[in-house]
Design brief:
Number of helices: 2
Enzyme class: hydrolase
Largest sheet: 7 strands, mixed
Oligomer: single chain
Radius of gyration: 14 Å
Strand content: 35-45%
Organism: Kribbibacterium absianum
Number of domains: 1
CATH superfamily: Nucleoside Triphosphate Pyrophosphohydrolase
CATH architecture: Alpha-Beta Complex
Protein name: 8-oxo-dGTP diphosphatase
Catalytic activity: 8-oxo-dGTP + H2O = 8-oxo-dGMP + diphosphate + H(+)
EC number: 3.6.1.55
CATH class: Alpha Beta
């Protein structure tokens, strides 16, 4: 079983996180229409943080004001192992994501997190995020 290494961003703004609905097939055509955090594969020689920033520029046409590591998620699909480095990010003031690659982008509040059909690797993360929501939102507030 091979390993796929990705980096994803939990983009936080005004008490919500950005969710992206897949337009393209992932993992051999599965999971079209499922929700995920924006991000993508880490290229050889690239750090997970650099990969995350690159993917966000490609997918959403945004640069983040801040980005810091949250955790690493390991998940076994039937035919490969996924390692996902998850970062928390905040958009620069006045920046809005553009939908370049997804069916839909949606800002999701705490009570909506587990209502979406997430990719399997993201489901546990969303439940944990509900539990950690106050500390996540407090950490994402801009310094005054």
């Amino acid at each position: 079983m091979g390993t796929v290494h990705v980096a994803a961003a939990l983009i936080v703004a005004e008490g919500a996180v950005l969710a992206a609905r897949r337009r393209k097939p992932a993992y051999d055509g599965r999971f079209v229409g499922r929700w995920e955090l924006p991000g993508g594969k880490v290229e050889e020689g690239e750090s997970p943080e650099d990969a995350c920033r690159r993917e966000l520029r490609e997918e959403l046409k945004v640069d983040l004001a801040e980005l810091w590591p949250l955790e690493t998620v390991d998940f076994d699909y039937d035919d490969f192992h996924l390692t996902m480095d998850v970062f928390v990010g905040r958009l620069a003031e006045g920046v809005e994501p553009q939908n370049i690659e997804h069916q839909e982008l949606r800002w999701v509040r705490r009570d909506e997190l587990t209502d979406l059909a997430w990719l399997p690797a993201d489901v546990t993360l969303m439940h944990q995020l509900q539990d950690r929501w106050p500390e996540m939102m407090a950490a994402a507030e801009p310094a005054s």
